[in-house]
C-alpha cells in the first residue's frame, strides 16, 4: 500500500482507529470507569476490613494493595480523558486501546482479588510449609556443609590413628626384641623408648581429638534433631499467624450450614444487645435455664 508523502504507517493506523471509534464508546467509557472505580474501592475496603492490624504477615496484603491501586489510578486518569473526548474529541486515538485494556484488567482484579484472599486462606498450610522451608534453607545448607566436614575429617583422623597405632605396635615389638638381646643393646633400647614415648603421646593427642570430634558430632546431631522436631510447630505458628493476618475472624464464605462461626459472631455482639434491654426483660432472661425452661 502506497502511503502519501510524510504519512507514516503509524499515522495510518491511528487514523483508521479513530474512524472506528464512535461517540458511544466514549460515553460508555465515561459511565463504566467510575462504576468500576467505585466497585474496586468497595471491594478493597471490604477485604481490608477483615485484615488483622498486627502487621506481621503483610507481604500478601501489600501485593493486593498494589494490585488495587494500579487500576484505581488508571481510572482516575482515564475518566477525565473520556469526558474530554465527549466534549470536543481532543484525545489521542490510542486512548481507546488503553481504556479497553484497563477495563479488562479492572474486571479481572475485581474477580481475582477475593479469590486470591480465599485461596491464600485455604492454602495457608502449604504456604506456611514453603515459607518455613525457604527460611530454614540456609540452615539446612549450613548443616549439610558441616555434616560433610565432619565425615571428611572423621575419615582422615581415623586413618591417621590407625597408622599411628600400627607404628606404636611396631615399636613395641622392636622394643621387646631388644629386651631379649640383653645388656649389649641398652643404647638401642633407650632410643626406642624415646621413639615409643613420642609416638604414644601423639597417639594420645589424636585419640583426645577423636573424642572431641565425636562429642561435637553428637551435639551437632542433637541440634539437627531439635531443629527437625521444631519444624512442625514453626509451620503451625506461621499458618495461624498467616490466617490471622488475612482475616480477624472466619470468612463468611467458609461458614457452612453446620458451622458455628456465625453463632460465635452473634455471641460476641450479645453484650451490646443486653445493654438495650429493660430491667423486666433482663430479669425474665436471668431466671431461665440454658435450655429455655423457667427456674421455679
Structural description of this entry:
Residues 286-296 have a biased composition (Basic residues). Keywords: Membrane, Transmembrane, Transmembrane helix. Residues 275-296 are annotated as: Disordered. The chain crosses the membrane at residues 59-79, 91-112. With 296 residues, this protein is mostly helical. It folds into two domains: 9-122, no CATH class; 134-246. The protein has helices at residues 9-20, 23-48, 59-87, 95-122, 124-135, 137-181, 186-246, 261-275, 279-286. Helix 2 runs parallel beside helix 4 (95-122) and helix 6 (137-181) runs antiparallel to helix 7 (186-246). The model is unreliable at 7-20 and 249-289 (pLDDT under 50).
What is the mean pLDDT?
Answer: 71
The termini sit apart by: 100 Å
Shape: rod-shaped
H-E order: HHHHHHHHH
Helical percentage: over 70%
Number of domains: 2
State the major sheet: none
Spans of at least 5 consecutive residues whose pLDDT stays below 50 are: 7-20, 249-289
Instruction: Specify Rg, calculated over alpha carbons.
Output: 40 Å
Assess the beta-strand content as a share of residues. under 5%
Q: What is the count of β-strands? A: 0
Quaternary structure of the protein: single chain
- Briefly note the structural class of the backbone: mainly alpha
Q: How large is the count of helical segments? A: 9
Transmembrane segments: 59-79, 91-112
Biased composition (Basic residues): 286-296
Region (Disordered): 275-296
Keywords: Membrane, Transmembrane, Transmembrane helix
Amino acid at each position: 500500500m502506497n502511503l502519501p508523502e510524510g504519512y507514516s504507517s503509524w499515522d495510518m493506523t491511528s487514523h483508521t482507529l479513530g474512524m472506528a471509534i464512535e461517540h458511544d464508546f466514549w460515553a460508555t467509557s465515561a459511565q463504566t470507569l467510575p462504576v468500576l472505580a467505585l466497585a474496586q474501592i468497595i471491594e478493597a475496603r471490604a477485604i481490608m476490613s477483615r485484615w488483622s492490624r498486627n502487621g506481621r504477615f503483610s507481604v500478601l496484603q501489600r501485593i493486593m494493595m498494589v494490585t488495587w491501586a494500579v487500576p484505581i489510578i488508571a481510572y482516575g486518569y482515564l475518566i477525565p480523558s473520556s469526558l474530554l473526548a465527549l466534549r470536543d474529541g481532543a484525545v489521542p486515538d490510542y486512548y481507546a486501546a488503553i481504556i479497553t485494556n484497563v477495563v479488562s484488567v479492572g474486571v479481572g482484579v475485581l474477580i481475582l482479588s477475593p479469590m486470591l484472599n480465599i485461596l491464600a486462606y485455604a492454602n495457608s498450610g502449604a504456604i506456611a510449609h514453603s515459607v518455613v522451608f525457604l527460611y530454614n534453607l540456609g540452615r539446612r545448607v549450613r548443616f549439610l556443609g558441616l555434616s560433610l566436614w565432619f565425615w571428611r575429617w572423621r575419615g582422615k583422623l581415623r586413618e591417621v590413628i590407625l597408622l599411628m597405632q600400627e607404628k606404636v605396635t611396631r615399636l613395641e615389638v622392636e622394643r621387646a626384641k631388644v629386651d631379649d638381646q640383653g645388656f649389649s643393646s641398652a643404647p638401642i633400647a633407650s632410643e626406642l623408648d624415646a621413639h615409643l614415648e613420642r609416638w604414644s603421646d601423639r597417639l594420645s593427642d589424636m585419640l583426645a581429638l577423636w573424642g572431641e570430634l565425636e562429642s561435637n558430632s553428637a551435639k551437632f546431631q542433637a541440634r539437627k534433631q531439635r531443629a527437625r522436631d521444631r519444624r512442625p510447630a514453626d509451620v503451625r505458628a506461621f499458618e495461624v499467624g498467616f490466617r490471622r493476618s488475612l482475616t480477624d475472624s472466619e470468612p463468611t464464605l467458609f461458614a457452612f450450614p453446620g458451622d458455628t462461626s456465625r453463632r460465635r459472631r452473634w455471641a460476641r455482639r450479645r453484650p451490646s444487645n443486653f445493654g438495650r434491654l429493660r430491667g423486666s426483660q433482663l430479669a425474665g432472661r436471668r431466671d431461665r435455664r440454658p435450655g429455655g425452661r423457667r427456674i421455679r
